[in-house]
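Journal club prep — side note

Before the paper discussion, L.F. wants everyone to see what a predicted structure for a comparable chain looks like in token form. Sequence:
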Amino acid sequence: MGALDHFSHIFDCSSRTTRLRKRKQFQTVEIKVRMDCEGCERKVKRAVEEMKGVRSVEVDPKQNKLTVVGYVEPDKVVARVAHRTGKKVEIWPYVPYDVVAHPYAQGVYDRKAPPGYVRKADDPQVYQLARANSTEVRYTTAFSDDNPAACVVM
């Protein structure tokens, strides 16, 4: 082994001793932000467009919804929008109306929700309130127009 081989191991720059970065997931982040006018829309959109990893930004002023697609973390997007705009910002708290078994249960129904949406309930107690027992389901479906064997008396 010569002197060059010895020095080449010492000054080797191709080794993997550098710290590896954790790659961010490609995801869609939906955020609820109150937008009153076109100026608010532009302000919210510009706050997120400049972020590293953002691929597309969509603003829906009727639903007060901001959708960000890219290699971003939801917490950082929320923090950035709140800091840059000074508005109250939260992760989109609604799910489509069809997903929930009982959308008018306490803790799920929200009058402020956009049309076709109800509040997402992560609390297990709310789920038990929203979940109907079998007798309740039997009685509600017995008098339904969708049920072909429904009561004819109605």
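L.F.'s comment for the group: The longest strand covers residues 27-33. Keep this in mind when we get to the figures.
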